[in-house]
Amino acid sequence: MNQMSKLDHFIQQAVSAAPVSGTSLISSLYGDSLSHRGGEIWLGSLTALLEGLGFGDRFVRTSLFRLNKEGWLDVDRIGRRSFYRLSDKGMRLTRRAESKIYRAEAPAWDGNWLLLLSEGLDRNTLADVKKQLLWQGFGTLAPNLLASPSQRLADVQALLHEAGVAEQVICFEAQSPLATSVSALRARVEECWQLTGQNQLYEDFIATFRPLLPLLREADEDELTPARCFAIQLLLIHLYRRVILKDPLLPEALLPAHWLGQSARQLCINIYRRVAPGALAWVSEKGETSVGPLPQPASSFWQRFGGLKT
């Protein structure tokens, strides 16, 4: 089997390893390839980008319909062409996810905790707000008490304002005497944040993508085509996104031994930096907006993972 077919074989294996949600995959594509380039693209361009991974027109159309219905994408129809762009909601959620996906290292910690007491909310509102806070990295210490050692107060207050509950949730800032309670605290953290399961997700991600590294090292530029770079990058970020967005990004002092989060992040960074130039070129070639070619990437794109080569 030659090198070129090995890369194709890897892509096919990654696609078929688990069921792929169309809405999730296209959300990954918008977040990774389009959010920093205006956030809009022609339906035909999306179809062209995804056909190389084996996804057809019906897959794309059905997924776009659902994302539009959920308010994640807006659509403009010009003649017989449809152009889908990130809505305000979609862009807001994308930016929130980017802060976790593309960070280059674990956040520093000063020992402080942010505590939220939510006793004044009705059951449905509490469930919705709690879901958003858990996604942001909070853990449940008690039925109505959530905690995070890594979230900024300003970011959390913005989220609570968006949800319309800022005046109903009580915020506290506290400090943990880590030196005197490290064992008990780590045990509680591991239970509340379900770190064993999260570590298994990282282990699975590493097992999937580590075999790709030698293939990329051995591949020459003719073999590592823009189309293959795009396919690899989209699958990489799509699968990494599914893992990292569940990670509360706890400080290293609170993590269990043999935590695989940093190894998974570095693996993702190494692969991303290798394929990003080709993937960028492929999206530029295939992408079309309602006013012509896609714009050049914003400066924030080049800051991903601590810096990409321009």
TrEMBL record:
Protein name (record): Phenylacetic acid degradation operon negative regulatory protein PaaX
Taxonomy of the source species: Bacteria, Pseudomonadati, Pseudomonadota, Gammaproteobacteria, Enterobacterales
Domain Transcriptional repressor PaaX-like N-terminal positions: 22-90
Gene: paaX
Domain annotation Transcriptional repressor PaaX-like central Cas2-like: ranges: 108-177
Residues of the Transcriptional repressor PaaX-like C-terminal domain: 193-283
GO biological process entries: DNA-templated transcription
Domain of life: Bacteria
